[in-house]
From TrEMBL:
Protein name, UniProt field: Protein-lysine N-methyltransferase EFM6
GO CC annotations, alphabetized: cytoplasm
Listed GO biological process terms: methylation
Gene: EFM6
Entry annotated with the keyword Glycoprotein: no
Length: 275
C-alpha cells in the first residue's frame, strides 16, 4: 500500500523544470543544444498526460523499447518486464523518461538473477524518481526487495497514478522526500540500497542532494548512480561528491550496451560512502 507524506515545514523553492529541459551537448559540455541520446525514440519534451509501456529484458544484449497499446499480462517469472507509465511534464521535468533512468532500469533487469540473491529482503530508496520508472522496474522484477520511490511534492500525484497502473509488484511505496531537508519518518533512515538516475541538473540542488545521500548512507549502503553529462557546471557536483563518496564505473554491465550509452554521454557508477 502506497502512502504519500506531507511535510509541515514551509516548502523549499521549487526546482526550475525549464533548466532540466535545456539539454546540452553531452560530449564536450559546450553550450549548444543537442539530442537526448534516448534509447526510446519519439518522446517529446511537451508530454502531457500520455500513457506508455516500456519493456525491459533480462537479456542485457536486448535494448528496452516502447510497446504499442497496453501491457500484456506478465508475471514476475517472465523473461521481460513491462512498466506502464503516465508521463506528464506539467509539474516539472521529472514527468518524462530521461536517458539515465532508461539505462539504470536496463542494468537492473540484466542483473536480475544476481540481485535476487543479494537484494532479497533489502530496503531500497530511489531519489528523484520522477515518473517512478526505475523503482517500478525493480519492484516488478520480483526479487523480494521493498522499494520507496521519492521526489518532491509536485511529482506525488503522477507517481501515485503510476503505482496504480502497475499492480502485482513487490512492495513499493510513494513518498515525498526533499533533498537537503530532514528525512521523513515514512522512509527507511538507512536503506540498504540507493538508486539515482538523472538527478544532476541544477547547481542549487548539488549540495542538498549530496547531503541527503550522506544522511541515507552507511559505509555498507550500495549506491547505483546513473548520470547523463549536460553542462560544464555538472563537474562541480562531482567535486562535492568525491569529498564524501568513493565511486567508479559499474564493471558488470554488458560491454556493448555500456559502450553505446557511454558514447551518448551517460555513465553508470557504483558508489560507497567514505569511512
Amino acid at each position: 500500500m502506497a502512502t504519500t507524506s506531507r511535510q509541515q515545514d514551509p516548502p523549499t523553492p521549487p526546482l526550475n523544470p525549464l533548466t532540466h529541459l535545456l539539454n546540452q551537448d553531452v560530449g564536450d559540455f559546450d553550450d549548444e543544444p543537442s539530442s537526448d541520446g534516448q534509447l526510446f525514440p519519439g518522446q517529446r519534451h511537451s508530454i502531457i498526460d500520455e500513457k506508455m509501456v516500456i519493456r525491459y529484458y533480462g537479456d542485457p544484449t536486448k535494448t528496452p523499447h516502447l510497446l504499442d497499446g497496453d501491457a500484456p499480462e506478465t508475471g514476475t517469472s517472465s523473461p521481460h518486464i513491462d512498466v506502464t507509465l503516465l508521463c506528464d511534464v506539467t509539474n516539472g521535468c521529472g514527468g518524462k523518461i530521461w536517458p539515465a533512468a532508461e539505462v539504470l532500469g536496463a542494468y537492473l533487469t540484466g542483473r536480475r538473477e544476481d540481485l535476487a540473491i543479494r537484494w532479497k529482503g533489502k530496503k531500497v530508496i530511489e531519489l528523484g524518481s520522477g515518473t517512478g520508472l526505475v523503482g517500478f522496474v525493480l519492484a516488478k522484477m520480483g526479487i523480494g526487495a521493498e522499494t520507496w520511490i521519492t521526489d518532491q511534492d509536485a511529482m506525488m500525484e503522477l507517481m501515485q497514478k503510476n503505482l496504480e497502473l502497475n499492480p502485482g509488484m513487490d512492495p513499493c511505496f510513494v513518498e515525498e522526500l526533499n533533498w537537503g531537508e530532514p528525512l521523513p519518518s515514512s522512509v527507511p533512515q538507512k536503506p540498504d540500497v540507493l538508486l539515482l538516475a538523472d538527478c544532476v541538473y541544477l547547481e542549487v540542488a548539488f549540495q542538498p542532494l549530496v547531503d541527503t545521500m550522506i544522511d541515507l548512507s552507511t559505509t555498507e549502503t550500495e549506491i547505483l548512480f546513473c548520470y547523463q553529462k549536460r553542462r560544464k557546471a555538472d563537474k562541480r557536483f562531482f567535486t562535492i561528491l568525491k569529498k564524501h563518496f568513493h565511486f567508479d564505473d559499474v564493471k558488470d554491465d554488458d560491454p556493448v550496451r555500456t559502450e553505446q550509452y557511454n558514447r551518448q554521454g551517460t555513465r553508470l557508477y557504483r558508489m560507497k560512502l567514505k569511512g
